[in-house]
């Protein structure tokens, strides 16, 4: 599979996969013909476990608190990401197209 970006002004770019897994590296192939902008939404939620909170409240030693947080922080944080928009802008004339609703 390949992706063609063709502007009304005649500027065009063909993205071809270059690695196993069909990865096409935009920065290596665009040669300044087009710019890409993204709208990414990141939502982080922290879940505090009651036992961790109790242990932290009872602990006065900073190094112990640091150890507890280092051991437990991965389990207490959830991150969700979503790509809302991908915009290709022609470097020649400024025309653009927005890809949305993924």
Major beta-sheet overview: 3 strands, antiparallel
- The shape is elongated
| Residue share in β-strands | 35-45%
Uncertain parts: none
Strand order of the largest sheet: 3-4-5
Structural class based on helices, strands and sheet pairing: alpha+beta
Total DSSP helices:
3
**Strands, total number:** 5
**Average of pLDDT:** 87
Helix content: 25-40%
What is the H/E order?
A: EEHEHHEE
Describe what you observe in this structure.
With 102 residues, the chain is of the alpha+beta class. It has one domain. 27% of the residues lie in helices and 39% in strands. The protein is built from three helices and five strands. It has a three-stranded antiparallel beta sheet with strand order 3-4-5. It has a two-stranded antiparallel sheet with strand order 1-2. The radius of gyration is 23 Å and the shape is elongated.
List keywords for this structure.
102 residues; 3-stranded antiparallel beta sheet; two-stranded antiparallel ribbon; 3 helices; 39% strand; elongated
Question: What is the element layout, followed by pairings?
Answer:
Elements: E1 3-6, E2 12-15, H1 26-29, E3 34-46, H2 50-58, H3 62-76, E4 77-90, E5 96-100
Antiparallel strand pairs: 1-2, 3-4, 4-5
Offer a concise description of the structure.
The protein is 27% helix and 39% strand. It has 102 residues and is α+β, with helices and mostly antiparallel strands. The chain has one domain.
């Amino acid at each position: 599979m390949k992706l063609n970006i063709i502007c009304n002004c005649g500027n065009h770019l063909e993205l071809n996969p270059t690695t196993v897994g069909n990865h096409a590296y935009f920065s290596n192939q665009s040669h300044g013909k087009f710019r890409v902008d993204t709208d990414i939404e990141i939502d982080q939620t922290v879940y505090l476990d009651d036992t961790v909170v109790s242990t932290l409240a009872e602990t006065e030693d900073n190094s112990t608190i640091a150890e507890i947080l280092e051991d437990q922080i991965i389990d207490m944080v959830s991150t969700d990401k979503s790509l809302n928009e991908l915009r290709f802008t022609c470097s020649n004339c400024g025309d653009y197209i927005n890809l949305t609703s993924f």
